[in-house]
Amino acid sequence: MAYRNDGSVHYEGIENENNVAARMEDIFYAQQVLGTTLGNSYAVETRGGTQYKEDVVVLDNSTEHKISVKRKKSLKTGSFDYINSSSAVKDTSSLSHFAQEVNRAKGCTSKSVARKIVNEASNTVLNNLASKDVWNILQKHVIVPYENIITLINDQATKKSYAFEFGGTQLFQHYQKKSEISLIGKGSSRRILFGGEDIGLRIRVVTNNGIGALLGLSDKNKTSIPVVKIQQDKVAALIENTKNVRTIV
Q1: Please, what's the b/e burial string for 17-51 (b: 16 or more CB within 10 A of its CB; e: otherwise)?
Q2: CB-based contact 126:97 (threshold 8 Å)
């Protein structure tokens, strides 16, 4: 699977968030997304950025409804990110080797040599990442931040949207059961299995803007740092297997 790192996903996301915020001004649409009744004087704001998981917020008197917006050209292909986090690397001692090797690769004059150093380090740390390490990353950077956020997935192919609470996902159910995690794959990416079950979740240990930016050779990005990405593949299956999903046409 190829992953884009040219910034296009980011800009498409901003456009999508703004479109959702505009549509949330329609109270009928907003109530479908939130699954609750709103007062006539509610307000809508956009947030987003690296410091927030929510992209759109609906303020209804003293109640704040947070929404994370995911845009998909089709539910049948691709993935979306839950996190793209440098702090998850810093928080996980088992990933310190990867951070050290990324720093060493910065001194390379050859992209191929630097890429080899980074890829080998990623493969090594993922081979040795324990179940508790993955759970710590998921708990701190995905489960706790998303627990009180509504996820809204826009399917561009069918013009339908799907809204749900994070508590209805298979990931949250496995978190409650504390299922044993195993990682399947090689290189810088692994599928995450929960008690042997594949729910479409993936962990990647990479640099956020690629090797060219790491070596200062990119015109688009001037820096590249080690990050952990938690991605959701099989988006159609996520919607099918999540409880109490609201379909909005």
Answers
A1: beebbebbeeeeebbbbbeeebeeebebebbbeee
A2: no
Q: What's the average model confidence in pLDDT over 165-183?
A: 97
In the predicted model, is pLDDT for residue 135 greater than 50? yes
Three-state DSSP string of the chain: CCCCCCCHHHHHHHHHHHHHHHHCCCHHHHHHHHCCCCCCCCEEEECCCCCCCCCEEEEECCEEEEEEEEEECCCCCCCEEEEEECHHHHHCHHHHHHHHHHHHHCCCCCHHHHHHHHHHHHHHHHHCCCHHHHHHHHHHHHHHHHCCEEEEEEECCCCEEEEEEHHHCHHHHHHHHCCCEEEECCCCEEEEEECCEEEEEEEEEEECCHHHHHCCCCCCCCCCCEEEEEEECCHHHHHHHCCCCEEEC
The answer to whether residues 216 and 138 touch, using CB atoms and an 8 Å cutoff, is no
State mean pLDDT over 174-188: 97
Instruction: Locate 15 and state its tokens.
Output: 């456009």
Question: Is residue 68 within 8 Å of 149, Cβ to Cβ?
Answer: yes
Q: What are phi and psi of 77, to 5 degrees?
A: -130, 160
